[in-house]
Design brief:
Blueprint: H1 3-17, H2 29-36, H3 40-52, E1 56-59, E2 63-66, H4 71-74, H5 76-82, H6 90-108, H7 114-127, H8 133-149, H9 154-177, H10 181-197, H11 201-222
Keywords: DNA-binding, Transcription, Transcription regulation
Domain HTH gntR-type: 1-69
Protein name: GntR family transcriptional regulator
Length: 223
């Protein structure tokens, strides 16, 4: 095992075991290196790597701290990696989204409050009948994010947020090339919203599946 990997594993072990908890400040570099039997250089590299994936927070002049370890924070790294996808793998990301997002939409059905539903409907009304593709994509992202947040599962919400990157390009491309894509998207959004108002989890799940599958089906036919 490379010395930096060993250092990462040892710091990870301290966090997993509870020796270091969210918000804790790490001991001074020299003390921690001696405690873990590491060189200061390998420890420094490990801290740098763990800060990139939001496990540690290096504060200049103050020290190094364990972050909150909140799922949304940790999964930001996934979103960064997802942006490097190849065009021929975008279907795989959409397939994962088709599995997760309908489940999240069903979970939201009994939980989302009337005020949130009214706000979503107002956003749809504000778009009008002929929004630009850019306006539609932005609204689409916000529509689904608001619903998923209401599911009450922060890990699921963060995973889906991370998966939105590659699908955004597909949505824009679809809006530019497919006849009535804008109208279909708005109709599907209203159908999802109607199912949520009825507190019908299975109908909400079904409409969310149809909505994502239509993008996936179209993209599959064009690649």
């Amino acid at each position: 095992m490379a010395v930096t990997d060993e250092a990462i594993e040892k710091i990870k072990g301290m966090i997993v075991s509870g020796a270091l908890r969210p918000g804790d400040r790490l001991p001074k570099e020299s003390e921690l290196a001696a405690e873990l039997g590491l060189s200061r250089n390998s420890l420094r590299e490990a801290v740098r790597a763990l800060s990139l994936i939001r496990i540690l927070d290096v504060r200049q002049g103050d020290g190094t701290y364990v972050t909150s370890l909140d799922p949304q924070l940790l999964l930001e790294a996934m979103s960064f990696v997802v942006d490097f996808h190849r065009d021929d793998t975008v279907l795989e990301f959409l397939a994962v989204r088709r599995i997760l997002e309908p489940a999240a939409t069903a979970l939201a059905a009994p939980r989302i409050d009337a005020g949130q539903l009214d706000a979503l409907e107002a956003q749809l009304d504000a778009l009008g009948a002929e929004p630009s593709v850019e306006q539609l994509v932005a609204a689409d992202l916000e529509f689904h994010r608001s619903i998923v947040q209401s599911a009450g599962n922060s890990v699921l919400c963060s995973l889906l947020d991370g998966l939105s990157g590659p699908t955004t390009r597909a949505r824009i491309w679809r809006g530019l090339t497919q006849e009535d894509a804008v109208g279909r998207t708005l109709r599907e959004h209203r159908a999802i919203l109607g199912a949520l108002r009825d507190r019908d989890a299975e109908a909400a799940r079904s409409w969310a599946t149809v909505h994502i599958a239509s993008v996936e089906q179209w993209l599959r036919s064009t690649l």
